[in-house]
Amino acid sequence: MLSSRIAYGVALAAVPGRLATPWLGPETAVGPGQVALRGLGVREAALHAGVLVALLRGCPIRGWLAVSLAGDLADVGATVAQRRQLPRRAAPKTVAAGGGSAALTVALLLSDR
C-alpha cells in the first residue's frame, strides 16, 4: 500500500495531466491546474514515504496515518463537491479509491492500539 501511494504521488508530480485527465477532465493535461496536481503528488509521495521511514525505524505511525486519512477525506470531499463539473465517472471512482484508502487507513489506526 505504501509503495503504491509513493509511486502514485511521484507519477502525479511528474505527469499530472496524464494521470488526472480521467479524474478531472482534459483541461488538466495542460495549464495552471497542474500546479495543484503536482502539489498533491508531492504530498502523497512525501507523506507515505514518511510512514515507511517511521515503520523502518520502529517509530510511531499514528500521526502519519491520521494525516493520510485527512488527505484522503479532503480529496473525496472536494471531488464530491465539484462532481457536476467533472467527467461523468470521476466522482464515483474517486469516492471508491479515496474512500477505500481511507477505510484501509482507519483499519490500520484501529489495529495499532
Describe this structure in words.
With 113 residues, the chain is mostly helical. It is 79% helix and 0% strand. The chain has 5 helices and no strands. It has helices at residues 2-14, 16-24, 33-57, 62-81, 90-111. Helix 1 (2-14) crosses helix 2 (16-24) and helix 4 (62-81) runs antiparallel to helix 5. It starts with a helix and ends with a helix. The model has no long low-confidence stretch (mean pLDDT 91).
Provide the helix percentage. Answer: over 70%
Radius of gyration equals 15 Å
**Kindly state the mean pLDDT as a whole number?**
91
Count every helix, treating DSSP H or I runs of 4 or more residues as helices: 5
Note the run of SSEs as H and E. Answer: HHHHH
Main sheet properties: none
Would you report the number of β strands?
0
SSE blueprint and pairings:
Blueprint: H1 2-14, H2 16-24, H3 33-57, H4 62-81, H5 90-111
Helix pairs in contact: 1-2, 1-3, 3-4, 4-5
Summarize the structure.
The chain is built from five helices and no strands. The chain has helices at residues 2-14, 16-24, 33-57, 62-81, 90-111.
